[in-house]
Amino acid sequence: MAKRALVSVSDKTGLIEFVKKLVDAGIEIISTGGTKKAIEAAGLPVQSVSDVTGFPEILDGRVKTLHPAIHGGLLAVRDKKNHMDAIAEHGIQPIDFVIVNLYPFKETISKPGVAYDEAVENIDIGGPSMLRSAAKNHKSVTVVCDPADYDLVAESLDENADVPFELKQKLAAKVFRHTAAYDALIADYFTKQTGEVFPEKLTITYEKKQGLRYGENPHQMAAFYSEPIENEATIAAAKQLHGKELSYNNIRDADAALGIVKEFKEPAAVAVKHMNPCGIGTGANVNEAYDKAYEADPVSIFGGIVALNREVDAELAEKLHSIFLEIVIAPSYSDEAIAILEKKKKNLRLLQVKMTDDAQDFVQYTSVRGGMLVQDLDTKGYEDIEDNLKVVTERKPTEEEMESLKFAWTIVKHVKSNAIALVNHGRMVGMGGGQTNRVGAAKIALEEAGEKAKGAVLSSDAYFPMNDTVEEAAKAGITAIIQPGGSIRDQESIDMANKYNIAMVMTGMRHFKH
Ligand SMILES: NC(=O)c1ncn([C@@H]2O[C@H](COP(=O)(O)O)[C@@H](O)[C@H]2O)c1NC=O
C-alpha cells in the first residue's frame, strides 16, 4: 500500500519542492484548505482531508483534522494486531508522514497592540494535536514541524519511502520541544493578561541564538538562548557590526556594561571588567565621558568592555583603538568610526544596541542546584529614593556633592556586594566590590582612588554595620556619603561623620547584588 503524508502548514516556505519529492517517492498527499490549494496550484496530486474524514472543515477552520480518521491513522501501532484490526474495522488507513507547522502565535502577539481575539484565533489546536500524535507514534510516523528539515527528510527517503528510526526519533523530540515552546508562549500570554505573577508552574521558553565555543572556562560547554520575542534594547538583540564571535564571558560583561550605561540620560561611558564597572564617566559629550571613564582606572580598562550611550565618532574611535578592548557597545557608529575601528582592530567586537529604557517587567532568573530563583530586575534608581532622602548629619551636602551622591548611588547597585563606589566630578574614581566585609570594600576603593579620593563622595550598597567605613573615608578625604541606613548602630556612623564634618544622606533602599 502507498505511504500517505498529511500536509497542513501555515508557513508555506519550501512546501512545493518538498511535496514534489514526496510525490516522486510514491507518497500520497492529504491536505487541508489553504495548503491543498497551494499544492493543487503547483499541479501536484492531493486529496482533501474532508474526503478522508467524510466531514467538512467547520468553525472557520477550528475543526478540520480533529477526527478519528486522522488520529487513528496516526496513532495505530503498526505491529499490534488489535490496533490494525480496529482501524480497518472503521475504514481508517495509516498515515505515515505528518508535515505540519502551526498558526503564527508568536508573530501575532509580537505585533504592537494586537487584539486579544486575534491572538486567541492564532492558537493552533489541530496542528499540535497531529504533531503530538505523530511524534508519540514516531516508530512508524515521520513528523516534520520545521521547513528547515524538509531537505534532510527528502534526502533520507529509502526505496520503501521510509526514513531511518534515528531520524524519526530526532524529529519527534523536536516536535515535543516545539509544541512545549508554543504552549509556553500561549501560557505566558494568558498569564500576563490575568496579571498573575510567579504562577505555580514556570513555563518559560528560549530560542537558541548561537552555540558558544565554551562557557565561563574552556572546559565548560555553553550556548546562548534568547527570549522568543526580541527586546531591541538588550545584548540578545545586539547587532554585531565587526569582530570575533562573542564568548560566554563577553555576553555577560556586555550585559552588565549595557545595564550601567542605560542608567544615564546624559552622555556616559562605562568600562566593565568581570561584570564590575572599573570606569564610569559622564560629560557634555560622549568623548569627554569616555576620557573620564578611562582615567578612572587606566589599568583595569585593559581588555575590558566599553559601553557608550551616544554615537561613536571618528575622534572617539581613535581613542578606542589605542588600547586593547574586547567589545565596544554603542547605539550607533559614524561611518568613519567604523572604518577606523575595523581597520585598526581586526578582532574588536563592535555591538550596536538600542539604548531605550529597560522594560519594567524584566525578570531575572538565577539557577541554583535543583532550582531557579526568580525576581524582578533591580530597576530602582535615584528617582525612586529622591523624595525620601534623609540628611542625618549636622552638615547638609552642597549642591555639587548632591550631584556626585546621585551619580554614586546610581552606579553602586551595579557593583557586586559588598560594594563601595567613589565619585568625583562626574566620574567614578574608585570602586571596591565583591568583598566579604564593607570596610574591606571601602579600603580597596579608597586605595585605588588615592589622591582622587580627596573631595570625592562615597556610596555604599547597604548600611554600615559599624563606623569604621566612615572613619576610613574621612581619613582619605571623602566629604559626603550616601547609604541606605537601617543598622542598629547607625548613630555611631552618624557621630563619626559629624566628627569629620562629612555630610551623610540615607536612602532607605538597599541595592545588594550577589
Ligand atoms: N483545527 C484543526 O483541525 C486544524 N488542523 C490543522 N490546523 C492548522 O491549519 C494550518 C493550515 O491551514 P490551511 O491548510 O488551511 O492553510 C496549519 O497551521 C495547521 O496546524 C488546524 N487549525 C487549528 O487548530
From TrEMBL:
Task: Show the SUPFAM superfamilies listed in the entry.
Answer: Cytidine deaminase-like, Methylglyoxal synthase-like
GO BP terms in the entry: 'de novo' IMP biosynthetic process
PROSITE patterns per the UniProt record, alphabetical: MGS
The entry's cellular-component GO terms read: cytosol
This protein's pathway reads: Purine metabolism; IMP biosynthesis via de novo pathway; 5-formamido-1-(5-phospho-D-ribosyl)imidazole-4-carboxamide from 5-amino-1-(5-phospho-D-ribosyl)imidazole-4-carboxamide (10-formyl THF route): step 1/1; Purine metabolism; IMP biosynthesis via de novo pathway; IMP from 5-formamido-1-(5-phospho-D-ribosyl)imidazole-4-carboxamide: step 1/1
- EC number(s) per entry: 2.1.2.3, 3.5.4.10
Domain (MGS-like) spans: 1-145
- Domain of life of the organism encoding this protein: Bacteria
Question: Which molecular function term from Gene Ontology is one that the record holds?
Answer: phosphoribosylaminoimidazolecarboxamide formyltransferase activity
Keyword Protease attached: no
Q: Does the keyword Transferase apply?
A: yes
Q: Which key words are in the record?
A: Hydrolase, Multifunctional enzyme, Purine biosynthesis, Transferase
**Which reaction is this enzyme known to catalyze?**
(6R)-10-formyltetrahydrofolate + 5-amino-1-(5-phospho-beta-D-ribosyl)imidazole-4-carboxamide = 5-formamido-1-(5-phospho-D-ribosyl)imidazole-4-carboxamide + (6S)-5,6,7,8-tetrahydrofolate; IMP + H2O = 5-formamido-1-(5-phospho-D-ribosyl)imidazole-4-carboxamide
Annotated CDD domains: IMPCH (cd01421)
Domain text: The IMP cyclohydrolase activity resides in the N-terminal region.
Describe the family membership recorded for this protein in Swiss-Prot or TrEMBL: Belongs to the PurH family.
NCBIfam families assigned to the protein according to its UniProt record, in alphabetical order: PRK00881.1 (NF002049), purH (TIGR00355)
Name of the protein described by the UniProt record: Bifunctional purine biosynthesis protein PurH
Instruction: State the organism of origin.
Output: Sporolactobacillus shoreae
